[in-house]
Structure formats: C-alpha cells, structure tokens
Amino acid sequence: MKVVSVEQRLFAFYLVPDFTMMAFSSAIDALRLANAVVGYEAYSWRAVSSDGAKVRASCGLTLEADNSVAVERQHLNGRLRPSVAVICGGKHIERHADRGADAWLRECRNRGVAVAALCTGAHVLAQAGLLDDRKCAIHWENQPGFIERFPAVNVSTGIYEVDGNIYTCAGGAASFDMMLHIIGRDFGEDVVSGICELALVDRVRDPGERQRLPFAQRVGVQDPTVMKLVEKMEKSLTEPMQVEELTASIGLSRRQVERLFRNELRCSPARYYLKLRLERARLLLVQTSIPVVEVAIACGFVSASHFSKCYREAFGCSPQETRGRAVKTPAARAVACASAA
C-alpha cells in the first residue's frame, strides 16, 4: 500500500484516576496499528497524570506517567506541543477535579490543539467549559447525571461525536472507532481498512450508531408500534406525555395500545412509562448529589412525596436510602459510577 507521509502527530493521554483500561488501550492500539500499516511512525504518544506519578486504572493496574500537567503546560510553547490532548476517564470521574488540568485543556484549545475524551472524559472537558453549546458523547450509564449537571451541552446517544476540533466517545470499543475516524482523516479509508484487518475488526462503525439498543428491543419486543412508542417515552422522561398523546401520534386507540403493551411487555403503557422514569431517577440518585426533589422534577414527578411513594413501591427502599447506600458502599459506588468500558 502506497501512503503519502504526513507530519508526525503526538497524542498526550491524560489519565484520570480510575480510568478504564479498555478505552485507553483501544485508542493506543489504533495508533500503533496505523504506524504498522503506513510503515513509519506517523503517530506517537505519551501518558500524563496530574502530578506525574503513576495512575491506577479501574481494573487495578497502574501505569507510569511520562509527564505531569505542569510539564505539559510548558510544552505548549515548544516543539513538544501535542497535536491532540486526550482525557481518559472512567469511574468516579466527578471526584477527580483538577484545576491545573482544566487550565491546561483551555490553553490547548486556545493554541489550536485538538481535545478528545474517552469514556467519562467528557465530564472533564465540560468542567473546563469546553463543551458549552457543543455536541458530545458519553457512556449511556452516565448520561442522566451528566445532562443534569451540564445542561448547556448537547449530549448524543451515538458511540462518538466530532464537533469541530473536539472529539468525544462513549468509551470501550468506541475509542477504537473514534481513533479510526481521526486516522481516516489523515490517511484515508485504505489505511483504516488495513488497521481493521490487523485488529480483526469486521467493520467501521458510524458515529451516530446507538450505544445500546432501545430497551424494547433488548427485552425482545417484536411489535413495531410498541417499539416506536417506547422510543417516544425514552425521549420524554423529563416531561412525560399523556398516554392519549402517545396513542394519537400513531392513530390507534388507547385500548388498542394497552392490548399491544400487555401482549409484549406484560404491563400497561402508563406502568411501563413509570418504570422508565424511575430507572432514570435511580441513576441520578447514585451518580449525582442533586437534591431528591430536583431528581423528582427531572423525572417528571409533580411532587417529592409522590415520587418517593412510587420509588419505594418499585425498589423497596426510599430515594434517600438508595443515595445513602451509593455513598457508603464501595461496591454500590462502582456500580453507580462505572462505565461498562
């Protein structure tokens, strides 16, 4: 394969404590394989930590850092300035705020350095003010809390998002897809195909592909009408639609829709809608410190008392008890905050 050489591009990977190894290694391997396909060191990389010390990943392994954030800020003025600064996030991302890293990222943007985020790394970019009025991707499990904390950010349901010179992905294998997009811009689709052959990847996924199937498809719903209505419900959890509104949108009567739901999901449309809202509430309770009353409002409940009653009936405990367990129990914290990557 004949490849036109391009100037070497340097990636600085900022490792946030508890970062997900799969997202990080997927990104690194995409660059490594690109070098193998093009036949020269087109890409290089280094690891960065807050203070230059080792960083522990969510899987328990530790990685050496090449630089501290302070050294990276100095490199922005010289020949060692990176082409892309990549935030590698993971579990408990909200606990690892770093003003120095925020300042470094803002300086990167001001000096024309692209910024990227893997897994929950979009949280760090948003905290630094780089995602206001921008599109981004973040793992589906972290979306509810992220949306509530950063309402000015446009969060997509796709596996990765490109908005100008800002790249974000949901983590896991999506890191590989996002890096293939960047490599494809530099070298074209032939090089991307060569990387996929070496990595035994059967296809390149588009950025807009959903991170997970709608719940209706995951539980085996076959009826297209039910699937369509469930998607409408999932998109309107904050301001729930009346069942009559939902049925009117598809030209069926309420009785017809209720019959379809009972056949497919063994419950009424209203009961299923409530279940979706309560699941969103549970994620907000364990991922954020938003007051319970605000969680209730964010999930379409008119009062905290009604929300608490419904929540207890569904989960066997109060919203306050769910939050308390998430704070006190390490295992619960891991479940609440971890990305599947």
UniProtKB/TrEMBL annotation:
Keywords: DNA-binding, Transcription, Transcription regulation. Residues 227-325 form the HTH araC/xylS-type domain. Pfam families: DJ-1_PfpI, HTH_18. InterPro entries: Class_I_gatase-like (IPR029062), DJ-1/PfpI (IPR002818), Homeodomain-like_sf (IPR009057), HTH_AraC (IPR018060), HTH_AraC-typ_CS (IPR018062), INH-QAR (IPR052158), Tscrpt_reg_AraC-type_HTH (IPR020449). Transmembrane segments: none annotated. GO terms for molecular function: DNA-binding transcription factor activity; sequence-specific DNA binding. SUPFAM superfamilies: Class I glutamine amidotransferase-like, Homeodomain-like. SMART domains: HTH_ARAC (SM00342). The keyword Transcription regulation applies. PANTHER family: ARAC-FAMILY TRANSCRIPTIONAL REGULATOR (PTHR43130), HTH-TYPE TRANSCRIPTIONAL REGULATOR RV1931C (PTHR43130:SF3). This is AraC family transcriptional regulator. It comes from Sinorhizobium saheli.
